[in-house]
Amino acid sequence: MMRASDDAMCIGQRWSPLAANSPLREDAIQVWLIDLDDGESLPRSERGPWSEAERQHAARQHDRIARRRWLVGRSAVRDVLAGYLHCSPRSVAVEKGPNGRPRLAPANAPAQLDFNVAHSEHVLLCAVTRCGRVGVDVERIRPLDDLRALLDIVPTSSERVSSSQSNDRNLLLGFFRAWTAHEALAKAIGVGLELPFDAVHSARVGNTTFATVRGDVRGRRWSLVELDPVQGFVGALATAQANVPIELRRWKGVAP
Ligand SMILES: CC(C)(COP(=O)(O)OP(=O)(O)OC[C@H]1O[C@@H](n2cnc3c(N)ncnc32)[C@H](O)[C@@H]1OP(=O)(O)O)[C@@H](O)C(=O)NCCC(=O)NCCS
Q1: Residues with CB under 6 A from ligand 1
Q2: Pairing of strands 29-35, 2-3
Q3: 93: which of 53, 83, 162, 238 is 20 to 30 A away, CA to CA?
Q4: Which atom of ligand 1 sits closest to the CA of residue 137?
Q5: Integer Cα distance of 199 and 202 in angstroms
Q6: Phi-psi region of 124 (alpha: psi -120 to 50; beta: other; left: phi over 0)
């Protein structure tokens, strides 16, 4: 188990393979890594756990791979949430809150769970907690034609890359670290990409960035923690809880 303030956060992160329904401590965050291309993740029954809206969304995906990944992701997230709610994956009721931020519907609300999902290609992260709001993001590290321009727009990324390290690989890594941290923060707050970069004041300590957001009447101090889910991808987690234990899990459920 790691803590948000732990410097070792991005070094040799271990994602323990576990089935859903492991207990969630009141003061902890669990982050689930789901491989959307894992054959074991294919739902067994044709009916699956999906809602009609989810089926329709899948049907609108542009190709077979995207469709399959979307269905696998939805069934896996349902399985993970059902483990905490002690119900069937099909019974998990999710609705959209302000700005489209997914949340548990009132029927599941007594569980007081907050969760957030991010996906990039075949990698899906789902963060779950009972202690406040959580946000998560994941991106594949990939070449960007406009990297230099983006480095000017994403302020903290330049701080992460010293001049001696400024080859393209490190610049890209610095950019995606900063980008995922910003997006995880925006998703924890719930505003999505509408959060301006200049509204965030941040300071980096080890592998954690501490941030406050201009205009936040609650004056929250966010911890932005680096995640390393899979080779070639970076992620980030945002939480307003200080020194919260973070448990990294690789979903090994068999999709319902
Ligand atoms: C949320 C947002 C940052 C997603 O960015 P992205 O890089 O495309 O995708 P990610 O993989 O990081 O996250 C997608 C997930 O974020 C979640 N999400 C959606 N809106 C969210 C919000 N406002 N806050 C937090 N999480 C949100 C969903 O679970 C979504 O998964 P799904 O597409 O499978 O339903 C972006 O869509 C956004 O800024 N949305 C809010 C503003 C907006 O456009 N609202 C439209 C209202 S109609």
Answers
A1: 99-102, 116-119, 137, 183, 186-187, 190, 192-194
A2: unpaired
A3: 238
A4: 12
A5: 10
A6: beta
Q: Where are the domains of the chain?
A: 2-251
Mean pLDDT check: name the lowest of 21-30, 78-87, 127-136, 223-232: 21-30
- Could you identify the atom of ligand 1 that is nearest to the CA of residue 119? 11
- For the 2-251 domain, the top CATH level (class) is alpha beta
Average pLDDT over residues 75-99: 92
Structure tokens given for 49: 């756990």
Tokens representing 230? Answer: 């899979």
pLDDT at 87 over 80: yes
Q: State the Cα–Cα distance between residues 106 and 94, nearest whole angstrom.
A: 9
Please give the pLDDT value at position 10. Answer: 37
CA of 64 to the centre of ligand 1 (A): 22
- Cα–Cα distance for residue pair 195/13, rounded to 1 Å: 29
**Is 202 within 8 Å of 156 (Cβ atoms)?**
yes
DSSP bridge pairs for 48: none
* DSSP state for residue 130 in the 8-state scheme: S
Place of tokens 């330049």: 158
16, β-bridge pairs: 249
